[in-house]
Amino acid sequence: MLARVSNDKAETVGGLCMGTVTRGLLLAGACLVLAGCLRDGGSDDAEVSRAAAGPDMRPDQEARAKEAAQSEIISALQARRSVLVPGSSFDQVAGSVLAAYSRSAEADLLSARLRAEAASKNWLPRIGPNISLTSLSDIVTQLIVEQVLYDNGRKKAERAFAKADVEVAAVTLAEDVNGRVFEALMLYLAASQARERLALERRTLEDISQFEWIMSERVKGGVSDMSDLNILRSRLAEIREVMAGQIEAEATALAELNAMAERPLGAVTGLSEVSVDAGTVRALDVLRAVAEAERDTAEAVMARAGLLPGLTAGGTVGSGDTSFGLNLRSEQLLGLGTGAQLRAAEAEKEAASRRRAQADEDSNRVVQRLEGRLSALSRQVGEASVLRDTAQANLDLFQAQYDAGQRDVMDVVGVYETLAERQARALALKYELASVRLELARHMGVLAEGSRI
To answer: What residue ranges define each of the domains in the chain, with the CATH number in brackets?
Structure first.
């Protein structure tokens, strides 16, 4: 008996729910038609998006093409090309570390894109059930339908906020990718510089060892003083210490680089040219400031809209009671501080604009500093090469004079040490110049292809 009553009640609830849903859908359709006449441009860019997407594109490519058509920032990021020469040592390092990249920022970008997709439909009616059990014999089922007709631009601001949030996430991904490539290339430079410095010190060790042997023989013959021999042996000890440090530096840098890479990179050698024209693209921090300014502005509009009354249409359907009407309400109650809150929302728009202008200035300062550093280093590299060649010519002259008996061993050793210092200086400047070029490329965001966005 109890089972039969339960079944009857279930059938009754099912019938009520089906009838409620049918009537609710009709009411939602009416709200949708009304919203279509009054909404604030929920899909104004649809035609532009369809025009940007080619007929032969895959679904993912089409979605990205639509996104780029609606966003200058996304379009600018995707159009970027890497300044690393294909197949070069730098390109091999970048490709290996990106192949092993976990791309955590890509997950944030995907989440932001999904939120933007959800926000793009926020102008549609909202429907929700309302089922209550007042007693064992009284079940009330209703369907609530609500459509926003006028909200002081809140829904549009929500879409703008979600769109700007996607742009911020895209810039973050570009910064993350370029930062990873830059970090890997700096490790590669450290390993390469240590390797070249080690080779340089080995040649110096061989030459100074030869001088040490000559001086040792002169001391044995009573021709030279023991103090000169001690100076040479002390110099040899210093060279061995430098060599040990370079071996450790190379091993440490390579170990860290290989930990980032898909495959070992110890066999990759040489430097490649990196040419960066700062005037062709906008720096990543400027794009971030633009996206954040748009997001902050949209947030200010949302805050302002929450303080003002809006108009909604909707009603309830079910349990024999169907109602429909217009409602005028605001999310927050008005108070004495409402005026100040409205002015604060407007002030936030101005603050966002000023932060964007400040980002332009800061980025330009960084670019000017790096370009000035590049110019100075280029000059210093040329001067160091000239001084190195001059020191080599002096060494050749002193060596010839020594062979002719006109110079002492320590005279030749002094000139040789000057040459070794010039060679080390030229080597350090060469790698410093390469590192500054990479730093400028990272700042502009051109170390990795924009197609990864």
So the answer is: 2-36+84-445 (1.20.1600.10)
